Amino acid sequence: MKLNTIKTLGRSDFVNMGPIELRQPIPTKDIENIDPFILLHHYGPYEINERNNPFDLGPHPHRGFEPITFLLQGEQLHRDSLGNESVVKAGDVQWTTSGRGIIHSEGPTKAFVKQGGVLEGVQLWLNLPSEKKMIPAAYQHVENDTFNVINSEDDKLSIQIIAGKLNETFGKIKTQTPVNVYMISAEEGGKHTIDIAKGHNALVYLIEGNVNINENNRLTLNENQLIEFNTDGDGFTIEATEGSKLLFLSGEPFNEKVTSWGPYVMNTQTEIMEALRDYQQGKMGFLER
Ligand code: MN
Question: pLDDT value at position 281?
Fold first, then answer.
């Protein structure tokens, strides 16, 4: 197998979002986006309790892309203008196709805040191509233990197939575009070789731990670092030097102009103005506070 070489080793500086500090591996000053992935936020781990609960996001709109949440620790309540209301637990994935418009709210459940505990998650913004930006909105919630899993030969590394496929194992999420999304967990010493689909832009983000990537031309990836691969190979190898958790993303690039403003990701300024107007006219739905 020819291993994909590394294009960029990215940093994940803290950014402020209201009262919250969170890590933002995409975008950075070095990486504008990794088409079709336009934003990656890693929030927490935060200690949440009744005196400290800054992570309660009220109703807000989206258009033109897919906001996806991987909840790592804690418990959140999701509500949206399609009428969905569900409690999301650690390990669950929420895949929202905002399309022409949705309004949603999320935050730790009342019971979780009362009891107190650690909240942590990753949010990804996956772009939609121009011909799909105005499709009807949809919401998928998949529970942690229902995903298909591939285990390494040494049994020290497991790959949860969230979306797309790896070899002939498929993800549970129905996707709009060709993407592969895996959550990888490894114990110290766990080793595996992972295929990257032809023509896909690919990255790994190390949520926690420490791993070596590509055994022959080794690069050590430290906690909260991201690597973007070149599209010149068939995959990469991974070896965990301690207990580790990683998010792998790959997708076919759209090669379209991206114009984003606040919660909207469109192709042109005019479409952004239309989104602002449509939201104000109630065309993206309604959600009670
Ligand atoms: Mn949102």
Answer: 97
Ligand 1 centroid – CA 131 distance (Å): 22
Dihedral angle of Cα 24, 38, 27, 54, to the nearest 10 degrees: -30
Q: How far is the CA of 256 from the centre of ligand 1 (A)?
A: 23
* Ligand 1 centroid to residue 253 C-alpha, Å: 23
CB atoms within 10 A of CB 179: 23
- Cβ-Cβ contacts under 8 Å for 166 (sequence gap 6 or more): 150, 159, 180, 182, 194, 195
| Residue 150 alpha carbon to ligand 1 centre in Å | 31
What is the pLDDT, as a whole number, of residue 36? 98
Ligand 1 centroid – CA 285 distance (Å): 14
- How far is 159 from 83, CA to CA, in rounded Å? 32
- Joined together, the tokens standing for residue 186 give 């490894």
Q: What is the CA(243)–ligand 1 centre distance, in A?
A: 31
Mean pLDDT rounded to a whole number for the chain: 96
CA–centroid distance, 60 to ligand 1, in Å, is: 6
Distances (CA, A) of 90 to 71, 72, 108: 5, 5, 11
Q: How many angstroms separate the CA atoms of 261 and 275, rounded? A: 10
Q: Is the pLDDT reported for residue 18 higher than 90?
A: no
> What is the C-alpha to C-alpha distance for residues 271 and 280, in angstroms, rounded to an integer?
14
Calculate mean pLDDT across residues 216-230. Answer: 93
How far is the C-alpha of 266 from the C-alpha of 275, rounded, in Å?
A: 9
> Rounded to the nearest whole angstrom, what is the distance from the C-alpha of residue 154 to the centroid of ligand 1?
39
Residue 37 has pLDDT above 90, yes or no: yes
104 CA distance to ligand 1 middle (Å): 6
The string of pLDDT tens digits covering residues 38-68 is 999 999 999 999 998 888 889 999 999 999 9
